[in-house]
């Protein structure tokens, strides 16, 4: 069943979350840096394990998904080069594949929930810096997500990719991409919608972009 009614807004938001994660992976792997505010949004989305709404995963503001919505629109209207679009799509498919593997593995789901819950609890006590959260979430990614198989191949500058801090940040934004992919599936998202409802998705995403970013 393809959902295009009351949940369509949530579908666009959650898929934009995936797109934003992918855009940050590209920035980090090619330049070694990304926006601090957008990176923090990614970190916070992972820690939001009991959201009241789709938007609450992203700090209760559509503005926090500006990069993701822009990336989604660029994909839908073929504004990127063939190589850029291909790279973005490969990352998206890899992220959704890991989400599917995670969904099928209840042991790893429980392990992930426990580790994140412990991190949230400790963070409330100790008020971790984002550098500390980055290190800890990167380790959770290595301990749990990486063991699911189908590791995501990251393309970029080999010199930059050897940097440990960059590696940790990339793992975190990939982690946030998987978190958004889980949310996307929960609200009824699927790839068939981009075949049968491409124009509707583009128009609604474009209206959202114009409303908040023009």
TrEMBL record:
Keyword vocabulary terms for this entry: Cell membrane, Cytoplasm, Membrane
Stored Pfam families: DUF489 (PF04356)
One cellular component term from this protein's GO annotations in UniProt: cytoplasm
Compartment(s): Cytoplasm; Cell membrane
Membrane topology: Peripheral membrane protein
Protein family per UniProt: Belongs to the HflD family.
PANTHER family in the record: HIGH FREQUENCY LYSOGENIZATION PROTEIN HFLD
HAMAP family cross-referenced by the UniProt entry: HflD_protein
Full protein name: High frequency lysogenization protein HflD homolog
């Amino acid at each position: 069943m393809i959902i295009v009614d009351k949940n369509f807004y949530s579908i666009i938001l959650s898929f934009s979350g995936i797109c934003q994660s992918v855009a940050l992976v590209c920035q980090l792997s090619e330049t070694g840096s990304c926006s601090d505010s957008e990176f923090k949004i990614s970190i916070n989305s992972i820690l939001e394990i009991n959201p009241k709404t789709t938007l609450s995963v992203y700090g209760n503001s559509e503005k926090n998904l500006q990069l993701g919505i822009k990336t989604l629109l660029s994909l839908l209207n073929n504004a990127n080069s063939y190589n850029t679009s291909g790279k973005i799509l490969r990352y998206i498919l890899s992220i959704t594949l890991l989400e599917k593997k995670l969904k099928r593995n209840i042991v790893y789901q429980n392990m992930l929930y426990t580790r994140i819950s412990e991190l949230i609890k400790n963070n409330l006590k100790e008020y971790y810096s984002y550098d500390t959260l980055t290190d800890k979430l990167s380790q959770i990614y290595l301990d749990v997500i990486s063991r699911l198989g189908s590791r995501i191949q990251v393309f970029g500058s080999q010199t930059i990719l050897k940097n440990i801090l960059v590696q940790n940040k990339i793992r975190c934004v990939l982690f946030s991409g998987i978190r958004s992919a889980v949310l996307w599936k929960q609200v009824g998202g699927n790839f068939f919608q981009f075949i049968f409802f491409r124009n509707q998705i583009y128009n609604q995403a474009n209206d959202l972009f114009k409303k908040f970013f023009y």
